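FIELD: query
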Amino acid sequence: MTSTPTSSSRSSTALRTDASRSERSLIVVGLDGSEPARAALQFAAEEATFRGASLRVVSVWRVDSIGLESSYVPLSDYVPIGELLEEAKELADDTVAHAREELGRHWPALEFETKTIEGGPPGDTLVDESKGATLLVVGNRGRGSLGSLLLGSVSEHVVRNAHCPVVVIPHGWIPSSEPPAAA
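FIELD: result
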């Protein structure tokens, strides 16, 4: 829809309408299985429903190499690295499966996708996932009374580097309502 220029205007003004949107907006939520991440999932699902957006649930898993090797004895002699990697992947897969179940039960009309990503630092991966998103939602793990005033490393990283606005759900956040009852 465009406005019609009048004799006093120098140019026409285009007005954006819902019909002019070529794609549905996207909300991305980072999920690691923690209580704040589960609260972030609920917030993101409610926000996606409110906005008529789709939701992408992202779980990033990795096993840091830091600390897995000792300068004296390789820990791989004692720690079955393959099993450790498999357990980390299973945990991420279970976290995402639980999210799919919860979204399907409480928000059956919500369009969503889930991704389990093996990769680099979770903050960097979430920043990459924020490209093209309208909102990124993450939970913040509290670290006691002083720690609750600070952002965690992942939350701080995405707040500083994301390609879209970020909502950080604080540790201990209680939603104003329970998830909607299953229909």
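FIELD: remark
Helices lie at 35-51, 81-106, 122-129, 144-147, 153-161.
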